[in-house]
Amino acid sequence: MHPYIPNTEKDKKEILEAIGAASVEELLKDIPQEVRLKGGLNLPDSLSEIEVRKVMGNLASSNKNLEEITSFLGAGSYDHYIPSVLKHLVGRSEFYTAYTPYQPEISQGTLQGVFEFQSMICALTGMEVSNVSMYDGPTAAAEGAILATVASRKNNILVSKTVNPETRKVLKTYLGFRDIKLIEVEEKNGVTNLEALEGLIDEETAGVIVQYPNFFGIVEDIKKIEELTHKNKKASLIMSVDPISLGVLKSPGELKADIVVGEGQALGGNMGFGGPVLGFMNVTEKLMRKMPGRIVGETVDVDGKRAFVLTLQAREQHIRREKATSNICSDQTLNSIGAAIYMASLGKQGIKELGLQCLQKAHYAHDRLVATGKFKPLFEGKPFFKEFVLVSESPVEELNKKLLEKGYLGGFDISKADYPYENAVLIAVTEQRSKEEIDSFAELMEVL
Questions:
Q1: pLDDT at 1
Q2: Residue 25: enclosing H or E segment and its boundaries?
């Protein structure tokens, strides 16, 4: 008997008799011989559980992890500290099994956890309404762009080239299949070219997408971008934000954003091979009825007690599929609950302290590296948060190989993206990095 297909010979005989076939061969006789598999699969012999554990252990040991190496890599995924309470709480079965609630009212604990996430992410972004979550940051940006076109009934989306290249690729894919025109706005000295932006905004513009801080770590002049965007009254300002930066920077709500999206991995998510992640989306009250995804609302039950429900469900495909605002049919419920636990464990003061540490340590690392004489700033004088771009005397790929041998994960090689900069490296510094680690990194970079 095959260990994973528990059919005995007696079972097979009864099945064949029931369908009127004398043998399995007779059952398959209509499949032409020329397309049949001849012999067994070209796979190694099966292993016992003990042997499999040893094989997998040897494979795993060939990988590097953040317990062994010191990371200065960012570009969208960051090495932030994850409080131990988070892993303990999301590992509880009532949270760990959380999924998109299709019969939501029986899942009051899950709904309350998500409601708290929505409340905290709105407080962080300064916006009015949040959904449960999206798949990830890039798809949240794509859904935000689609929302802008639905709300305005316009068909053009402008996106700054200072937005993460991976996000722009996802935008091209999503919007291309909806026949929405995506227009890229050139960058100038590391920020959005405002003259180019002003020249591109017209009556067909549904929205403008900018990143805050942008892909190079620079804090854009959102006030000027907002003024240009809102000259066209139907155009939406869509901001893709790093939630950690909002502990020290002005919130998108203060900056008059219409739609706020972002990647929530920094809110308690591991970096491991790209996840787990969650995308978040916040909008103004004016846009909430057109926003994709689930919204958890607070109400009272028949006894007058506090209760939670999925609200405004008529927006969704499982109610009116042909009029759905989006094709999103799932979300990252567990990750959003994890993000809520993360934000609650830090609190307002903790988020602010976290942002300040990232800001100060990044500027210290920048100055230490420039002082070596081996690096110079690519964008001189631009305000940055926790990432910055330096130009190296040697190719970044070679530099990163040498760094890895010494136990360091180097910065992102800008040449791998669609920017015309050679030997430029994007370095990220989070609260995880100590002064000793930064000093050692700078000393090593000086001699490599």
A1: 43
A2: helix 24-27
Same domain, 313 and 325: yes
Whole-number pLDDT of residue 316: 58
pLDDT per residue over 129-138, tens digit each?
999 999 999 9
**Percent of the chain with pLDDT strictly greater than 70:** 94
CB-based contacts of 349, cutoff 8 Å, min separation 6: none
Q: Number of structural domains, the chain?
A: 2
Distance, in Å, from the CA atom of 191 to the CA atom of 213, rounded to the nearest integer, reads 10
| Token pair 């760990």 in the structure block, residue | 96
Q: Residue type at 32?
A: P
Domain presence at residue 32: no
User: pLDDT tens-digit profile of 170-229?
Assistant: 999 999 999 999 999 999 999 999 999 999 999 999 999 999 999 999 999 999 999 999
- Averaged pLDDT, 100-124: 86
Distance CA(247)–CA(259), nearest Å, equals 19
Give the chain's count of helices (H) and strands (E). Answer: 14, 17
Beta bridge partners of 182: 157
Q: Which of 395, 393, 399, 425 is nearest to 412 (CA)?
A: 425
Question: Of 297, 327, 342, which residue sits at a domain end?
Answer: 342
HEC sequence for 318-382: HHHHHHCCCCCCCCCHHHHHHHHHHHHHHHHHHHHHHHHHHHHHHHHHHHHHHHCCCEEECCCCC
Residue 218 neighbours by CB distance under 10 Å = 24
Q: Which domain holds residue 246?
A: 84-342
> Which DSSP symbol is given to 432?
T
Cα–Cα distance between 220 and 161 in angstroms, integer? 12
pTM of the model: 0.88
